[in-house]
């Protein structure tokens, strides 16, 4: 695990989420940074139900009402502030939380360099 600068805070709407990747090669790690109620959170972009990314479109993580994160494959919804699945096939499970901090307008996340390290 290492720390990566993944975004500028100004690039993330509130509420909103921004996808990022770390590492390279055939299996880069995919994550997301979420802005919600004045806080910034980071999660692995891996649905606990089937292990694939939540989004189909770039940065498409929120439900239409902007209240929950959603897995586009099976409709599972997640609380933006905790990553807890509140509805769907993985109800009660959590998205993997990543350490995250904001410094001088930059968003830093501690994450692996590859999906193979997960």
* Counted beta strands: 10
CATH domain topology: Rieske Iron-sulfur Protein
Range of helix content: under 10%
The first-level CATH class is given as: Mainly Beta
Q: Supply the helix-strand structural class.
A: mainly beta
Shape: globular
- Rounded average pLDDT: 95
What's the main sheet like? 4 strands, antiparallel
Q: Which stretches are poorly predicted, pLDDT < 50 over at least 5 residues?
A: none
Report strand %. Answer: 35-45%
**Could you tell me the radius of gyration in angstroms?**
13 Å
Reported CATH architecture = 3-layer Sandwich
Number of domains: 1
Explain this structure to me?
The protein has a four-stranded antiparallel beta sheet with strand order 2-3-4-8, with no helix packed on it. Strands 1-10-9 form a three-stranded antiparallel beta sheet, with no helix packed on it. It has 118 residues and is mainly β. It has a single domain, classed as Rieske Iron-sulfur Protein, CATH 2.102.10.10. The model has no long low-confidence stretch (mean pLDDT 95). The chain is built from no helices and ten strands. The protein has strands at 2-8, 16-22, 29-36, 39-44, 69-70, 77-78, 85-87, 97-98, 100-103, 106-111.
């Amino acid at each position: 695990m290492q720390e990566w600068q993944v975004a500028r805070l100004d690039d993330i709407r509130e509420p909103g989420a921004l996808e990022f990747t770390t590492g390279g090669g055939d299996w880069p790690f995919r994550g997301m940074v979420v802005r919600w109620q004045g806080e910034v959170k980071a999660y692995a972009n891996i649905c606990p139900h089937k292990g694939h990314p939540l989004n189909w479109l770039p940065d498409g993580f929120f439900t239409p009402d902007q209240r929950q994160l959603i897995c586009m494959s099976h409709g599972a919804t997640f609380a933006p502030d905790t990553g807890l699945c509140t509805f769907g096939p993985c109800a009660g499970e959590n998205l993997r939380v990543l350490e995250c901090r904001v410094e001088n307008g930059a968003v830093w996340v501690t994450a692996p360099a590859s999906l193979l390290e997960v």
